[in-house]
Protein: ABC-type D-xylose/L-arabinose transporter
Organism: Haloarcula marismortui
Amino acid sequence: MGVRLCVMASLELDGLRKEFDGGSIVAVDDIDLSIDDGEFVTVVGPSGCGKSTTLRMIAGLERPTSGRIRIGDEDVTDVHARKRDVAMVFQNYALYPHKSIRQNMAFGLRMSTDLSKAERQERVTETAEMMGIGDLLDDTPDQLSGGQKQRVALGRAIVREPDVFLFDEPLSNLDAKLRTTMRTEIQRLQEELGITAVYVTHDQEEAMTMGDRIVILNDGKLQQAGRPKTVYENPTNQFVGGFVGSPSMNFLDVTAEPLSSGVRLTGAHDDFSYDLTGGRASAFGDIQRGSYVLGIRPEHVSVSDGGDQNAVPATVDVLEPIGSDNYLYLDLGESKTGFEGDGAPDFIARVSTDVEPAIGDRVQVSFDESAVHLFDPETGEAVTAGEDAPVATPQ
Ligand code: ATP
């Protein structure tokens, strides 16, 4: 096939900042990020965290308050959007309703290249074939399904062979099944074409499955950037721990008490006491007496047979079968009102389908010690043995 591989380029954001309303809103707060040639980076975070504003600044649709943007070797901060070699794919497809699919796809090419008409047509046809929309070229957008429209929008971006692709929640309008198909398709294209891409989504599962690297934003600030597995296993703070993964990481306020070997973690509830062995405790550095937040993912909580000395008593609140596994909603301790006293279950355990306790059953739960996280309750930062491990809040 004659479709040329896309020209790749790195992308660099250096102290990127965007304020609105005279500085009263800081939408993007001094973000530093380097994206390699051909890298696929997903950007995720809650509504209003600054995802779209970041993307719009890269596209040249929004002017940064401060900071620089580089594409390849060029500083494009002051370059007009039309002159930047980026293509953006939007949630609402943004197709011209009265133009044919062929015209929609050729339009950007005409604006951004000096190819002859015949060359443009050839490239459109080849790209459309590659995207599986070759037989739709003479249709208009209103004749297409949502999935086909998004394929056209993707094809229109690809045909331009830009340096960088920007995706702004491109699959949000599609149903769940089609979204999964299109995810795979975008990933396949990305690999085949070596696309450098920034993909914004509010869906952490989409971000985790698609990205070479995932970037988590909150409140305009970059919280963590890393491979999905790394971010999942080693969140740098409580926000990332809670945001990435579904159901969310369980959190519990505890007090740490150093032992001769290891550390005892005691919860506000009398029944909760958990001893970290010396080996595991050392991974957190020099833990002092004080307050921490314990974090553990649902798949690392299991219902034990009572043989585990460290097991924690709990009461089953709800059992939710999800087919492959069961989710157990648990109240720690003997009470049924919830650890926090608000009636909400304290913990979720993801257990195999043959673990089916009845509602109200008293069970013993164990934590996979290697998967216990500790966070500083004041800053939310993960406690690690690194040099900059946060110091516990003294009691
Ligand atoms: P969502 O997922 O809801 O689209 P987002 O993460 O993309 O959210 P942004 O749209 O980038 O967030 O907005 C970040 C913050 O900046 C929000 O508080 C938003 O209200 C504010 N904001 C964005 N654009 C403007 C604007 N033109 N004027 C004033 N405030 C703005």
About this structure: Residues 20-21, 25, 27, 45, 47-53, 202 surround adenosine-5'-triphosphate (CB under 6 Å).
